[in-house]
Design brief:
Layout: E1 3-4, E2 7-8, H1 9-14, H2 23-38, E3 45-47, H3 49-55, H4 60-67, H5 71-78, H6 87-97, H7 101-104, E4 105-107
Antiparallel strand pairs: 1-2, 3-4
Helix pairs in contact: 4-5
Length: 115
């Protein structure tokens, strides 16, 4: 089975009756299905905005002003929490940072869980 952090789903599903009326199965099954649906996005594309801002000695605020993007958008990208990005946003970032798309993003092939 797949691990989510340190939680083993095969163990949780095996012990569903310990919580009574099968409620735990529904909760853990939902969490597992969500994890499986989003895990293909986890660490597949790295965003190097924090590195680029450090190299250019530019703050997130200054980048937001230069691009016209919301500070929250910059923060999500900086902290690699963004789930999607528009082409217009990529264009604004590359213009403001004077960089290529490949400088901003890196594709990392996902490795399957061995467990």
């Amino acid at each position: 089975m797949t691990n989510l952090g340190k939680v083993r789903f095969d163990v949780l599903l095996r012990h569903q009756d310990a919580f009574g009326n099968g409620m735990s199965f529904n909760i853990y099954e939902s969490v597992y299905r969500y994890y499986v649906s989003v895990r293909s996005y986890i660490n597949v594309v790295r965003i190097h905005l924090s590195r680029l801002l450090g190299e250019k000695r530019m703050s997130q605020r200054r980048l937001a002003e230069a691009t016209g993007l919301r500070p929250n958008t910059i923060s999500e990208l900086y902290n690699e929490r963004a789930k999607r990005i528009d082409f217009a946003t990529i264009d604004r970032l590359c213009q403001a940072l004077d960089c290529q798309v490949s400088d901003l993003f890196e594709y990392i092939p996902q490795q399957d869980d061995v467990n």
